[in-house]
Amino acid sequence: MAAGHSVDPARWQEAFEALMGRIAGRFARVEPRRRVRQLVLGLLSDLPRKNCWTIAEWVGEATPDGMQHLLGRAKWDADLVRDEVCDYVVEHLHDEQAVLVVDETGDVKKGTHTVGVQRQYTGTAGRIENSQIAVYLVYAGRRGHAAVDRELYIPRSWTSEPDRCRAAGLGDQTAFATKPELATRMIGRFLDAGHRAPWVAGDEVYGGNPKLRAALEERGCGYVLAVARTHEVPTHAGKFRADALARKLPKRAWQKLSAGAGAKGHRFYDWAVINLAHPGPGSHQLLIRRNRSTGELAFYRCYSPRPVPLTTLVRVAGSRWRVEEFFQAGKGLAGLDEHQVRRFDSWSRWVTLAMLAHAFLAVVRADEHARHPGPADLIPLTCNEIQRLFTTLVVKPIRDAAHRLGWSHWRRRHQARAQASHYSRQAANQA
């Protein structure tokens, strides 16, 4: 390494092998155990597009058959690996004041056979598209953040057709569940596993759901959940819309506080809090955020088993953006959205391994920040930079000409068969 450089590739490789050893017991046979290691390395690579074909070529396999078998037919339980990812994240990013952040993301898809796909709104595209939606749970602490669970949203257009569900690998009795219900399920799994996070954050989809809020209160779990301006809250003077209460606040009710550091510095807003009337135990409040430049307002329903200061509620509200950072990094660095699979089992396996790959980057980043805060003229190592260095210094992809030419031959043969099949169907339809 360059003189004075703190990066230690051997330590990163040791950390990666330890993580692979951690999940090794979830694979009964040695072949999938070896191949899953190669797949995760491919997810961590600098490939511009990550799928079974590109990763198989990158790691040196002659065809994508083995990778496709690992995702589709090999014997292993993605949920057990997910539990290992959760334990790994909590162990290495542990924070007594961690926040569980819940949110959904969409992947634009073509066709109608990919599990869970339908025309629906997705924030990824910013409009209604043919897409697949998944809800994720992110553990966010001072040392970093990573996803610890995932649930695929199965629309009613699917659950009302058992044959369609069966063809996609879903059970015959698959029942419709809303996104807040999926969030409740994941938070329950996290807490039932013995993990602790005193706070939950989420956007209006989750804040506007009374069943989710009640479930969190029953478990004694605090929350700061966004709600719409039209959301009605109970006060000692009756029920009022959130925006109506904001208009009644005097100037002295607002405080300038940071919602956390962003890429361009601290994110300062004006904040105010109103105590709410509630028959049950605990502290119930309406938190209001005001943009200091535009005056735009945002609203949050808050609960805590015991009263907490405004700064704590602001910190939790600001943590919600960690899930957006996970989506960006998970998709950009670990191929979270690049799965080209149709069945539910294959989807579960791909996104779980992508979560594991991102979690590795997040843990290495936290470890590097703790070991080497870095000189003043350098920002601390980011997940992007760690991925780049890990691929360059640790992973040794195969790049010989014979291997590349063999894959070119395989792709062209596969494409020729697909083209011939397409022309045959076209001719039959025109006959």
TrEMBL record:
**Segment forming the signal sequence:** none
Its source organism is: Kitasatospora kazusensis
Q: Which residues form the Transposase IS701-like DDE domain?
A: 28-235
Tell me the protein's name.
IS701 family transposase
Taxonomic lineage is: Bacteria, Bacillati, Actinomycetota, Actinomycetes, Kitasatosporales
- Coiled coil spans: none
Task: List the NCBIfam families hit by this protein, alphabetically.
Answer: transpos_IS701
On the tree of life, the source organism's domain of life is: Bacteria
